[in-house]
Amino acid sequence: MGHARGHEQVHLVTQARRPMSEDIRYRQHRYLIMMAIRTLCFAVAIILFVNHLRWLVLIPAIGAIFIPYIAVIFANGGREPDNMRGFLEHRVNLPARRDSGDDEH
Q: Which residue range forms the structural domain that includes residue 62?
């Protein structure tokens, strides 16, 4: 096992952010799931309307109306926050040391 060279900053795996491509794929997947739920709400609303259950149509219709707004906000929200619950980088916080040969007591 090697030691850190010079002043290289060493990151633990728990501090590393997920790659941008993985983050975009995650947001696209979440958006598509929400749009599938919206489509299901719309289909249920149509079925309820055809079966003359007009007062029940409101529940899935409201979902079909508001889910796209929420999905777009989540999709365009940017990267997820950093994970700060894991282990953090070890930083030694000691005062600077003097050379013992310079001071004579």
A: 19-75
Torsion of CA 59, 64, 66, 69, to 10 degrees: 170
Is the CB of residue 64 less than 8 Å from the CB of residue 46?
no
For the chain, where are the alpha helices, taking DSSP H only?
A: 20-50, 54-75
Number of separate domains in the chain: 1
Task: Please report where in the chains the tokens 């030694």 appear, as a residue.
Answer: 92
Q: For the chain, what percent of residues have pLDDT higher than 90? A: 43
Residue 82: strand, helix, or coil: coil
Q: Which amino acid is at 85?
A: R
| 15-38 residue pLDDT tens | 567 788 888 899 999 999 999 999
- DSSP state, residue 32: H
